[in-house]
Amino acid sequence: MDNAATTSLKPEVLEAMMPYLTGKYGNASTLYLEGREAREAVEQARERTARALGAQPEEIYFTSGGTEADNWAIKGVAFARREKGNHIITSQIEHHAVLQPCEYLEKHGFHVTYLPVDSDGLVDPGDVSRAIEQNTVLVSIMFANNEIGTIEPVAEIARICREKGVLFHTDAVQAVGHVPVDVEKLGVDLLSLSAHKFHGPKGIGALYVRKGVRLDPFIHGGGQERNRRAGTENVAGIVGLGAAIELATSSLEERAARIAALRDKLIDGVLERVPDVKLNGHRIMRLPGNAHFCFRFIEGESLLLNLDVKGVSASSGSACTSGSLEPSHVLLALGLPHEMAQGSLRLTLDEENTGEEVDYVLDILPDIVKKLRPAGSG
Amino acid sequence: MSGIVYLDNSSTTKPFPEVVTVVAEALESGYGNPSSLHRLGEDVSKKLESARKNVASLLGAAPDEVFFTSGGTEANNWALFGTYRFFGGKRPHIVTTAVEHPSVMETVSVLKREGALVTVVGVDRSGFVSPEEIKAHIRDDTALVSVMYVQNEIGTIEPVKEIGAIIAELGPRRPRFHVDAVQGFARLPIDVKEWNVDLLSVSAHKIHGPKGVGALYIRKGVEIRPLVYGGGQEGGMRSGTENVPGILGFGKACEIWLSDRTATVAESVDSLMERFRKLRRKLVDGVREIFPDAVLHGPEDGNVAPYIVHFAFPGFRGETILHALEARGVFVSTGSACSSHHPKPSPVILALGRSEDEALSSIRFSMSRFTTEREIDRAIEALADALRELLPWRQSSERGRR
Fold first, then answer.
1. Which of A255, B250, B295, B335 is most buried, by CB atoms within 10 Å?
2. Is A342 on the interface with B (CB under 8 A)?
3. Per the CB < 8 Å rule, is A6 touching B76?
4. What is the CATH number of the domain that holds B299?
């Protein structure tokens, strides 16, 4: 139950990719037949991706993943609009792929406002509105948080940004393929996504860039992706992304409802059976598959190891920061005390998880928690 | 691809079947995020480290000096941006050459707009840069010298070892030395220690590995800034969930190249190079026999990658020849694949002192370890046939302009 870290590849996706790993290995930027076949496959994947997002194909740029897409969006817009201003607004709970480029920009003459969130992890659109100044060039607020699953009011934030003439980027890495994402309805200007979060391959992602939005390239040289992202196209990966996003966005609402029901069963069960536990993130405005808890008097790592022994893969939060003993910046932003933030557990479900698996977790978790808690605590 | 002669291996190569298996297996099953804590993740981490070791072995590097990227282009971007930003404007000068790949050239132009002072060193008629000239341009405020190993269009092998030695002599304040080794990697020897290299870029899909993965070698103790920031993967140097299938496929491809090095003489690297040289000689002679006006770009022999042959066919358009060859089942390129969409003359060919017409009339043939003598024969036949067909359209005014 660690599907927010990465998901398994769908067999249909692998099947779509295979020809481009073996026979049709042409370089998509060459002129002859082999290359043209690869080019057509890349363009078809671009169309599929655009369709899934309600975008135009020429607004989709393939990258090496969500992290590159976030880095590119933040730095690309900031540097392209440097003459217009040097202020950026984001939130305290963004993924490091957004926060660190912002910190980088701070060292290069930009000012960044890191908006706080409420105890459910929600950004207040009113805060965004109040933070926008004359020199604000970009607002970046994530679609859904990778640790606690809270879905942010991006449509409302996008509307405010548009009214004030500021570009809006959303890191939708956790959202695409899990909840409906339509760039036109949302009114966003830039949006990042990553294939391996929706049963596509690792090493490939995309950045949606609304037509007319200027941004500097991030990777230079070679002229691929219409001169905006250089490097020989990862054809198989791109084809895999296109196949996966099509699968992930078809009959999405039905699937999301089923997963949300499992999630609710898990959340209700844990809250009922385990004492001194807190659900993190918004109870309703959250990703269908995300359940995130903090257990008082427990270290998240030992909880994970005990679950692992019993065959349950989980995470303490973001895969990227596990291994470090620092409490998550997201949990601290919710106002949780350090000792509570350290006892965190994230279970992320997807369509392959079953009611029996949820029952199993509900069965073993109370005992593990009890065992790990020092005698007399709570 | 039966019946097809693929001679565009410097653009991209067919993955080894073993690589396809490894990639497909990793795609199918090994889906843990290697940066997660649980078991699925641990197993993948081990495999990643073994891939890293294989890449390192081909470079003469230690595994912890190898950082995976999304490809050679990213590695080149990173080496340049990362070094320049590390010095934070205190050492704004960069020395590079006129024949670098666009991923170096364009990054250098971006840095120039940011305030970098750039010296672009020219090359001779064969594409060689002179180590003495590089030396003459190094100053106190030089942050980086970036010189490619094998020129991707014409195959010239640059004197990187000599340049490394010159830089090493400059002592502790010496500039960093970066080598774009994408076109030489695995096929030709690389020894980062012996060459005194600080940074070196490689790519998987040029050596029968998968597309979308490459690596940057960063010598231990050499600090550069990251290019991609975020979750702290690759020891904090390159963020982003690891492209596990790509990296494992890359590792497998390296393993196959490594096994050649320990193999018996009959299959060793030397014998592969000997085979390449023979095929190259055959192709060069064959082309000249059909079309005596053809002009070979790059060295005749000696310090040239024996798997690259680049000819100008004065009076013809390279693109026209390419399509005529394609119609006959022979796939080549008009220069670097990356620039193939722009019918602009290649800056590399112009840097050799050739005319625009010559630059626009050129064709690159590039072989792989699977290229056979029979395929070279077929390519020569196809070229003869193609040129016969195209001859009436030859621009006579262009003749003798050389």
1. B250
2. no
3. no
4. 3.90.1150.10
Among A11, A231, A321, select the one facing B71 at the smallest CB separation.
A231
Q: What's the pLDDT at B60?
A: 96
d(CA A321, CA A329): 10
Interface pTM (ipTM) of the complex? 0.85
Q: In terms of Cα–Cα distance, which of B312, B9, B16 is closest to B183?
A: B9
Answer yes or no: do B307 and B326 share one domain.
yes
Same domain, B153 and B244: yes
Q: Tokens for B163?
A: 């340049």
Mean pLDDT lowest for which of A214-228, B214-228, B332-346?
B332-346
Q: Indicate the residue of A2, A96, A219 with minimum beta-carbon distance to B36.
A: A2
Residue of B nearest to A27 (CA): B12
Residue ending a domain, among B225, B259, B293, is: B259
B139 with B255, same domain?
Answer: yes
- What's the pTM value of the predicted model, to 2 decimals? 0.90
Active site includes A161?
Answer: no
Helix, strand, coil tally for chain A in percent (to 5)? 45, 15, 40
Query: A346 in helix, strand or coil?
Result: strand
Q: For residue B107, what are its two tokens?
A: 């990054």
Looking at the structure, tell me whether residues B223 and B362 fall in a common domain: no
User: Got the DSSP string for A182-236?
Assistant: -HHHHT-SEEEEEGGGTTS-TT-EEEEE-TT-----SS-SS-HHHHTS-S---HH
Chain A contact probe: residue of B243, B244, B250 with most A CBs at under 10 A: B243
